[in-house]
Amino acid sequence: MAEHEPFALWLRNAAQLVQVCSKRELYLRGDELQRLPVLHNASLVLGRDGYIKAVGPADAIQTQFSNASFDKIIDCSGMCVLPGLVDAHTHPVWAGDRVHEFAMKLAGATYMEIHEAGGGIHYTVEHTRNALEEELFSSFQHRLLRMLRAGTTLVECKSGYGLALETELKMLRVIERARRELDIGVSSTYCGAHSVPKGKTASEAADDIINNHLPKLNDLMQSGDLRVDNIDVFCEKGVFDLNSTRRILQAGKDIGLQINFHGDELHPMNSAELGAELGAQAISHLEEISDKGIEAMGSAKCAAVLLPTTAYILRLNQPRARDMLKAGVIVALGSDFNPNAYCYAMPMVMHLACTNMKMSMNEALAAATINAAYSLGKSQSHGSLEVGKQGDVIIINSSRWEHLIYQFGGHQELIKYVIVKGKIVYQNDRVLSF
Ligand SMILES: N=CN[C@@H](CCC(=O)O)C(=O)O
Ligand SMILES: [Zn+2]
Predict the structure, then answer these.
(1) Do the domain assignments include residue 340?
(2) Is 329 in the same domain as 405?
(3) Which of 64, 62, 79, 61 lies closest to 14 in space, CA to CA?
(4) Tell me, what's the ipTM?
């Protein structure tokens, strides 16, 4: 079949083209992760509508598109083409860094000791409440650009440094603006239950969220002013207990939000069991998950969003990735970018997942693409290189894709192009020479 219409991009002759999925799978788990579909000497065509039109052997694509015109052709000889990376968990809108707390933690303070002394999330809340919306947008935009340069084309972004309605809405507006104006995919999460505001109990904070925050959010969503995809709660000892968590998540689900929350991070809370029961799309952290929780998440197809940077920085127990994979849990990865875990780069996250959580490189890549997209309810359109999917692609300057994980911190030089919805949004022309 000859193709005549003009196309946006022809990525041709890639040494490897890593599809991740080839049968429109919405997630990969168990044995499916042993081998990922990788085409050798392959090409990919992106349409002007931003979607993938063809993927296949270079000579077949050459024949099929011999009469077509392209806005741009990239010769990918010696390079690899992969799906854009999906970062399934970030807190990227805030003011005031916490480098001083990093020093305290290095000196032995725990995350909760700092939190209970009024630092941690509380410190960031204070600074974020005082920041102008424009300032928050500007620093957020800069962070998104850095994520993009590290290969992320779709990112989950949480509110949660307001706690009070006014600042939570300010953060969600900033996220909404980025979603509308910037060339990066955004999944927006309301995380008003990130911490219990000073002067309130968890139950009072839950009442405020259910009676005041969520109805307002619902109005703004209905009027089209705001799009919010997910609801999050920090379910943790000394933060939101299981009962308050359940009430908030259920109320969020009732207004159409996907449940995607923090659970079983520092203490076993039975969060995994709760999430499975409520039909959560995903639960993050899970360093302290129970055996029953693993089983429940596997059966419920609730994604486990593992965050290797958190365990690394806070010196926590590593999440039990191997047990989860063995039990058929859908494992995804996120950077957890926040003032505690200051890491933008999914290639480094994948590396840590391999070294510290004992995942294979195939498992890590699937977790940072199709499974991360699944955790956001977006794997129909994102997370793999298949015809009909959104054209989110990265091209790396290496003839074996595994270098993206192997070269710890090397992604800055390796990533040559980042393409979002068929548009080149980053091109790295850095020349490495002495
Ligand atoms: N654990 C709760 N929330 C964040 C940390 C946020 C913060 O410390 O500012 C996390 O996922 O690691
Ligand atoms: Zn988090």
Answers:
(1) yes
(2) no
(3) 79
(4) 0.97
| Distance of alpha carbon 20 from alpha carbon 61, whole angstroms | 19
Count of domains forming the chain? 2
Using CA positions, which residue lies closest to atom 10 of ligand 1? 336
User: Global pTM?
Assistant: 0.98
Average pLDDT over residues 218-237: 98
340 in ligand 1 pocket by Cβ < 6 Å?
Answer: yes
The band of 2, judged by pLDDT with boundaries at 50, 70 and 90, is low
Q: Please compute the mean of the pLDDT values over residues 286-309 and round it to a whole number.
A: 98
Confidence at 429, pLDDT banded by 50, 70, 90: confident
- Rounded alpha-carbon distances, angstroms, from residue 353 to 158, 296, 308, 347, 357: 22, 22, 6, 10, 5
Residue 194 CA to ligand 1 center (angstroms) comes to: 8
Q: How confident is the model over 256-275, as a mean pLDDT?
A: 98
Would 307 be classed as within a structural domain?
yes
Domain assignment of residue 434, yes or no: no
**Shared domain check, 74 and 89:** no
Give the closest ligand to the alpha carbon of residue 338. Answer: 1
Of residues 36, 78, 150, 77, the one with CA closest to residue 400:
78
